[in-house]
Amino acid sequence: MRYSQAFIHTLFEAPKEAETPSHVLLLRGSLIYPVAAGIYALLPLGHRVTTKIRRIIREELNAIGGLELTMPVVNPAELWKRTGRYFDIGEELIRFKDRRDREFVLAMTHEEVVTDIAKQFVRSYRDLPVMLYQIQTKIRDEARPRAGLLRVREFFMKDAYSFHRDFADLDSYYPKIFNAYLRIFARCGLNSAPIEADSGIMGGTGSHEFMLESPTGEDRFVVCPGCGYRANTEKAVGIKPGRTQLVDTPPPVDKVHTPEVKTIAGLKEFFNSSEEHFLKTVAYVADTNLVLAVVRGDFNISATKLANYLKAIHLEYAPEKILSEKGLYAGFLAPVGVEGVRTVLDTSITERTLYIAGANEPDMHLKNVLPGRDFEWTEVADIAEVREGDLCAACGKAHLEMRRGIELGHTFKLGTKYTAPDSMDVTYLDRSGEPNLVVMGCYGIGVERLMASVIERWHDDFGMQFPFTVAPFHILISQLGRKPEIVEMAERIYSNLSASYEVLYDDRDESAGVKLKDADLIGIPVRIVVSQKHQKTGDVEIKIRQTGEVRICPEKDLQGTLEAIVNVLQPSLEDLPYMPE
User: Fold this and answer.
1) What's the topology of domain 473-569?
2) Is the bond preceding 129 in cis, omega lying within 30 degrees of 0?
3) Sequence-ordered strand ranges (E) for 107-153
């Protein structure tokens, strides 16, 4: 491809709204064009990259028996109502009516449609297992799209769905998809960290996120340097240091006037005490019920853990109106003296220990609050966020480290969430002719997000540094100067290499500075410079973009030299943290 015909229009500076490195470079490098907030067009360079990512995904999924299909973006609302997700998902799901007043949604995922397909065609145990996948447009009306392609409203997603006779069959298949994901990301040039994750609105019995460690990542996860335990903070469990005081003769509760002091930070100063001496009580509405969640003052409540424990679909902070109806006041909440309100205590709270808590009246707090004496010791669960430095619950020896990351993909063991009688009711006949529920797995990868993640990992101050496997072109030939002998040499190299590689030939009538800066910006793995300086001796300059290594190579040796370079640039699929199959 000649640069003059390639529709590449680089920018010196990115728009001000560009935040992350990938957002800046995708815009500057002419890979994407912003159409609306969170909605982007893929320009030719970006299209080439995502095409290669899709090819890698297809190759790996086909290798484990995946069968590709295409499902519609427009789904009948009735399917989503059967599973309940039509009502469970908020405004992210776009709902509309057609001209005949029938209800539809724009699919943000395709469990309902693929399960309906399975219901029609899976009849017998002989039809199982089977894995169907697609690479299709998804629509999610994201409230706050940001970071370019990392959080968008319309995107391509590879979503795969496996159907099994039972949980044992799902468990035996799961390592195949897990390992295929490791290979997909490695072939894209990324070291992914599989971590235990919360299943969220997908439901199911277990899931993993494949995380790229990155300072720009929105997700937080913990790592144990001792045993290798990894988990999303929404799922992670640590050992909470206790604070048992072994109070033999506890003093009575003492009510203290604390005018306008509502926060733990303010209370610490007021009482001249540390965070672990306080009870932090937060009121939520779980679906339609008021719930008090109580943790020790040095912890924060995990809304995800709380929602999972309560089996709540919707969880939000309780508005003041609901609190006032119960005689409660935000900032002065406590489980003491509260009747008729469900209260969940975190495992960080210990018996025979005195705490400071709210008094459930304005500007008042209580000292010497004793669990079990001053409020009932009823529901206790792990509802606190894990913290940096907490002892690992898996090995009990090392302290957890907090990391930030970008989610590359997610795998779920859905089980019978979508095939159960109260959902889509999908059964098959076993060997004895008895009906059984089909068991499912679900596996997703965002294509544009994966491209952005590659750039987050592979860039420098000058531009992108694409891995060879997903680069829009393999080789960029930069012709510096318009003398006939230079043009002839560049044309000859372009013609010779195009049979073996995807080559972009910069034939523009631009200065050497412009051409070399654009070459660094768009990040083609190998750059060949044809210039008067080296043409006289029959040589060319080769630069490897990721390493910055420069070689001077005779034109006659160019093919062999490139073959050696390309071999080194190929990703290794060995030593990945494969799951035993």
Assistant:
1) Rossmann fold (3.40.50)
2) yes
3) 130-139
